[in-house]
Amino acid sequence: PRAGLYEQFGGRPGIEALVEELLVRVLEDERIAAQFAEVDLVNLNDRLVEQICAEVGGPCEYTGRTMAESHEGLAITEADFNALVEDLVAAMDARGIPRRAQNRLLARLAPMHRDIVSP
Ligand code: HEM
């Protein structure tokens, strides 16, 4: 990613605040909340921070499972995926992240779609 993207996300503290905003929205989103009922949210929070930090070019290493491994058997639909992306955009808006920076992150997450949504 282009230099400066990590900074536009507010660095590590900005990304931590973003993931918190995202998880609050996901857990209140009746379309997908139930799918997170039995999830270790501390782990999910920490892995998402690492992942987003790495994807925006920050000095972080993603230590979680692959997207295919972690979403296998969860029967995630296209609609579920779109709902989560919508929640992410709302969280980025709430954090005041510029639209162009948002789109750069979304472009990096988009190819993960094939490993997350069930065939
Ligand atoms: C771009 C979209 C997505 C990204 C980047 C993403 C990222 C992640 C990450 C980093 C983890 C943690 C992996 C680990 O623990 O090692 C995870 C787990 C999980 N994700 Fe996603 N995810 C996405 C979409 C979705 C969607 C659409 C759903 C369902 C509505 C979903 C449901 C889950 C669940 C339930 C877990 C926990 C699985 C477990 O602990 O067994 N994810 N995801």
The coarse silhouette is globular
What proportion of the residues form beta strands (DSSP E)?
under 5%
Tally of alpha and pi helices: 7
CATH structural fold name: Globin-like
* Main sheet attributes: strand count, strand direction, barrel closure: none
CATH C-level class: Mainly Alpha
Instruction: Please provide the ordered H/E string of secondary-structure elements.
Output: HHHHHHH
CATH architecture: Orthogonal Bundle
Share of helix, binned: 55-70%
**Radius of gyration based on Cα positions:** 14 Å
Q: What small molecules does this complex bind? A: protoporphyrin IX containing FE
Mean pLDDT: 97
**In total, how many beta strands?**
0
First CA to last CA: what distance? 29 Å
Task: Please explain how this structure is put together.
- Keywords: Heme, Iron, Metal-binding, Oxygen transport, Signal, Transport.
- Heme binds at residue 71.
- This is Group 1 truncated hemoglobin.
- GO terms for molecular function: heme binding; metal ion binding; oxygen binding; oxygen carrier activity.
- The protein is an all-alpha fold and 119 residues long.
- The chain has a single domain (5-116), classed as Globin-like (Orthogonal Bundle).
- The chain contains 7 helices and no strands.
- Helix 2 crosses helix 3 and helix 2 crosses helix 5 (78-94).
- The longest helix is centred in the first third of the chain and has 17 residues, at 11-27.
- The model has no long low-confidence stretch (mean pLDDT 97).
- Bound molecules: protoporphyrin IX containing FE.
- Residues 32, 35-36, 39, 43-44, 47-48, 51, 64-65, 70-71, 74, 76, 80-81, 84, 109, 112, 116 line the site of protoporphyrin IX containing FE.
